[in-house]
Write a structure and sequence with these properties.
elongated, mainly alpha, 0% strand
């Protein structure tokens, strides 16, 4: 059963279908089922780290969250958090509900995490971030 949770987590993570909380819950459930499995332990640590980053953001401690993600041993955490910032700023632009300064800040944080990510280059260029 834990493998089932891990497969859902990996597929949902790769497809960007899962939010921070979903990833945390799936990692936690898999760990509860198989706490001695080394692969499950790694998934659990990964999900815990992402949850810690989300908690920092919820506490309006974005600089700390970015720092934590930037120095994560998991490249996928850096990408996930940067992608979250990019998607948030794009939605804000579309809905016209974010200030220009906040859009710039979100873009700057994404750049700090993934400056060379090809998928983000158009956004960086549009915001004149480099």
């Amino acid at each position: 059963m834990s493998d089932f949770y891990v497969k859902i987590l990996i597929k949902g993570f790769q497809n960007r279908d899962l939010g921070f909380e979903d990833i945390y819950k799936l990692g936690n459930w898999a760990y509860e089922l198989c706490p001695d499995d080394p692969n499950i332990q790694e998934v659990y640590r990964f999900s815990q780290e992402l949850k810690d980053i989300e908690n920092l953001m919820k506490s309006d401690r974005f600089d700390e969250a970015v720092h934590r993600a930037k120095y994560s041993q998991h490249d996928s955490i850096r990408y996930y958090v940067a992608d979250f910032f990019i998607n948030t700023l794009l939605k804000g632009i579309k809905n016209r509900d974010l200030s220009f300064d906040l859009i710039q800040q979100l873009g700057g944080w994404a750049y700090e995490l993934c400056p060379d990510e090809p998928a983000f280059q158009e956004t960086y260029h549009s915001l004149k971030i480099s």
